[in-house]
Amino acid sequence: MQVDQPDPQRWRALAVCLAAGFLTLLDVSIVNVALPSIESDLGAGPSELQWILSGYAVAFGLVLVSAGRLGDARGRRRLFLIGLLVFTAGSALAGFAPGPGWLSGARVVQGVGAGILNPQVAGFIQALFQGPERGRAFGFLGASIGLSTAAGPVAGGLILGLVGGEDAWRWVFLVNLPVGAVVLVLALRLLPETTVDSSDSRLDPVGVVLLGAGTVLILLPLIGADADLADRSWWLLGVGVLALAVFVAWERRHTRRGGAPVVDLQLFRRRSYALGAALALAYFAGFTSIFFVLTVTLQSGLGYSPLLAGLAATPAAIGGAIAALNGGRLVHRFGRALVAVGLVLSIAGVLGMAAVVGVVPAAAVGWAIAGPQLVAGIGSGLVIAPNQALTLSGVPIAGGGSAAGVVQTGQRIGTAFGIAAVGAAFFASLASGGDHLTAFTVALFVAVGFMAVALAVALADLALNRRTGVRARL
After folding, report:
1. Mean pLDDT across the chain, nearest whole number?
2. Is 473 domain-assigned?
3. What is the pTM of this model?
């Protein structure tokens, strides 16, 4: 939505968007600490627990781009409200689930709602804010993403501890009902209607099916938290890549014939968008996987309670939130150089964690890694929000939702791939006779490898900036 004068309620609208986005991203990890209770209460087996975890991620990634395109074409407010309603309804179905199959299905419904809602958030930021204000808005979004990543296990542990009993896990989902209702009322009051060009309202069902199939086929063998990678259907990755190749060919043909594509492939001709999307994929593969192996190490290896294991990750969340707010303000001035600084800090913090766990007593690990985690979190805050702002800086407002959906899909795939690879290194070290702290150290080095790829992308962009004299601007 192009506006001559800024919407006077834009900051309130942003707060509503961030609240809903935080709620949906929190559900990525909040369920982890409740799995033992679900297993005991519902009699869920390993495969059912796997789908309770992964069904949300698959559905989330499946609809992101298509939902962004629909928001661009039919109105972001409408899609935001639909996504929030679907997510809240899925939470109710999950909270009252009589069995594991029902719960797995409810998690899929939740994931669909989250996938519909999330690209609209970035789309609204693109539409409501300009210049330095847009950077600040993306800074708030980055803070929200960082907090939700680390807050899930903490929130889950708190709910289980406060409610108590066999059915306490149900409140991990039911707590979304009152929060979702409040956000829905505020969204109806504060989110603006978006005007769309009727020429952009056409949809491409063939493209939607091809993109969705490719995304799901890639995600299926990657998702999960188990150690037995050999039994996963890795051939699906190849089929998924083939489906995406067919999708690209179809989109080009469809565009040449005058159709409206699901994804404007011309976006990838913009260096800021192509490199920013690649950087986000690599960084999410490295940084987010750390919290998976950290939780396993603290709970399974060192005997921490779910709440204490969750609290051990809070320094990264706090550092990330603070830095994201400032990073959103500074990105207008420093551009991709700010992202590169953040990547260096993130890598330094993770390497600091690896160094610390090798010299302190096991009982002191939670406290000892607080400082390095804080540094890594600060770095993360200077990466996620500024990179998102720069990646979308050259995207036309009318296509902001679908463009954001592509980036977020890459983040989901990066996260899944990182957890699979980092988790494989972690469990392989355990299987070879190492203890949990040794395995944790090995996993951290693998995570750093992914983050180093992201740094290489940022440095390449800076080098091209110097050579061409052109850089992304907000």
Report:
1. 85
2. no
3. 0.82
